[in-house]
Amino acid sequence: MKKRPWKSSLTAIMLGALIVQGGTTVWAADAATTTVAAPTVNYGLTSDIRAAIKSVAVTPTATGSELSVTVRLYNGGANQNRVPEHELRVQTSSGVFYTLKPSGSNKESLQPKEIGELVYMTTVDSKEIGTIDQVSFVNVDVYSYPKLETTLLTMPAKAVWYGGTGSAALQNLENIAWGQSFSIPGVNSGLTYTAVEASMQTTETGRVAVVTVLADNPGAGRETVPAFRLDAQSETKSYVGKRAEVDPVTLEAGEKKYIHYAIPVENGVTLSNLVVLSTDTFVPKGGGEAATLATGKLAVAWPKEQGTGAAVPYTIGQPIAFDALTKVIDKSTEVSLMELHLHENPGEGYQTAVAKFRLTNTSTTPVAMPTFQSELVSTQGMTYQGARQANVAAMLNPGLSYVVSYSFIVPQSEESTSFAMKLLDPVAAAPYTTTVAALQTELQQEDTEKTISLYPFEVTFNDVTVSSITTPQLTYSYKFRMDLDIKQDENVVVDNNFSKLRFEIVDNAGRVVGSKDASFTGANKLISGKQELDASNITSDQFSYPFTVNVYETIETANGTAKRLLKVIK
């Protein structure tokens, strides 16, 4: 059968052209900010099968070079069609040919309207490959003598990835700004992507750059995120990334989702770019370990500003606006930061910041308690990790509010009065975190002379006196006589997980000789009016005078007991 000219068959296989092109439509709302990959040119391999180059790469190895090619085929016919017998060759600008080996997973035939990708690879003990100009399908008749070769199709190789490190590896790639949307050239997908967050995180194995990418499906049908990865580049070195999501990520029409990449880097490294690479799998025929072939498609500038740049001004007590796509906070749960204090701790050598969040279930059914984490970022960019209180309620009942506290250990040298509070999702990119809200707020200044806020309580110390008692056995104890006024906000649940007051007795040498904890819940809870507390767990056998009583709020966290100094009684 005579082969049809590809131009005359283009209309009949318009669907195939749209699928093979690898580009996306520029939508009006995104036209100013989206970089759309140019359509991939496709060619007639047979009367029904069309071919397009997805990727061509020359990657340095320890002893030479790795050459790889991925070709996409589309069967536009009405019947199953066999892929013609062929070798795949690449030709350099100097006229040198290299024959690549086919992957054992390559399709031998295509069903009607089916798309298939053929993967090829070979290694050469030479680093002087030169510039790849063409990719050819060549049929070799080994049963004829002399051997008969027929070129079935030759395609120009216009976008070749020459792998390596530093700026040289980016010369043939399109470079886009951070936050600019893009599609991936050559990849059969209508999805667009935007890098929205990058952070350096420390793990047990070292530093990791964690990048969050927003995937958007502007099309009319369901799509699965294709295989690609993000690598990071410094001026002299490349760092390989890995997607945190193991399972396939599927987007319905009009849907947006986050995907996350973790890139292990060295301590102190300064990154300059992210490289978007499509990935394919090469399976050796006859057995052997499969290899991942990566081809650079475009480069994204590493963001210049991190930390508090994205934090929005916030007023204590207002509902927090979370990222609309986050799953860590139920849509019916309202979260507000109610307190943020920073205090010195006598004798501890550091300061303690305490943040209290109110979580309110606005629905009509119980919802799970959110498990967000927190970080405090100073105006100088110093980041302090929060320790969540050890025990919290598992569920939030409707119409009620619950209090969850976080403590932060801060050095004595920290003098900032304004901080960014970052709320983090520990689940989406586990074991790494991503930011779901960032608030810029001022520390609260409180009057420690009389009324102290311990949300949802306000405690007024009308009078506090301390006296010592000597027993016949010549042991010592202390008695606290207090006149308190305690007010509590309505519809806020307080249980035995809530923070406590601790009264620490400090002798004239600065030693803590005894303490007493008092709770806001239970049978012996603190109440409004006059009451007494005894501190009998004295560690000194000598009467200490003069003495000082430090009053703390204590919170049990996974890292131990966090203390916030409230009042000093002399």
Short description:
The longest helix is centred in the N-terminal third of the chain and has 7 residues, at 14-20. The chain has two helices and 44 strands.
Gyration radius, in Å: 33 Å
User: Kindly, what is the distance between the CA atoms of the first and last residues, rounded to a whole number of angstroms?
Assistant: 104 Å
Q: Estimate percent helicity.
A: under 10%
The count of β-strands is 44
What class would the helix/strand composition place it in?
mainly beta
- Enumerate how many helices there are, as a single number: 2
Mean pLDDT: 86
Descriptive key words:
disordered N terminus; 2 helices; mainly beta; elongated; 2% helix; 51% strand; five-stranded mixed sheet; 570 residues; nine-stranded mixed sheet
Describe the structure in your own words:
Helix content is 2%, strand content 51%. The chain is an all-beta fold and 570 residues long. The strands form eleven sheets. Strands 2, 3, 4, 6, 7, 9, 10, 11 and 12 form a nine-stranded mixed β-sheet that branches. A hairpin with a 4-residue loop joins strand 18 (228-233) and strand 19 (238-239). The longest helix has 7 residues, at 14-20. It is elongated.
Secondary structure elements and their pairing?
Elements: H1 6-9, H2 14-20, E1 34-35, E2 42-44, E3 49-60, E4 65-75, E5 81-82, E6 87-92, E7 97-102, E8 109-110, E9 115-124, E10 132-141, E11 148-156, E12 160-162, E13 174-176, E14 181-182, E15 192-203, E16 206-216, E17 223-224, E18 228-233, E19 238-239, E20 242-243, E21 250-251, E22 256-265, E23 273-282, E24 291-301, E25 312-313, E26 333-344, E27 350-361, E28 367-368, E29 373-377, E30 383-385, E31 387-388, E32 395-396, E33 401-411, E34 418-425, E35 434-442, E36 451-454, E37 457-470, E38 476-488, E39 492-493, E40 500-506, E41 512-518, E42 529-535, E43 548-557, E44 560-569
Parallel strand pairs: 1-14, 3-12, 13-24, 25-35, 33-39
Antiparallel strand pairs: 2-3, 3-4, 4-9, 5-8, 6-7, 6-10, 7-9, 10-11, 15-16, 16-22, 17-21, 18-19, 18-23, 20-22, 23-24, 26-27, 27-33, 28-32, 29-30, 29-34, 31-33, 34-35, 36-37, 37-38, 38-42, 40-41, 40-43, 43-44
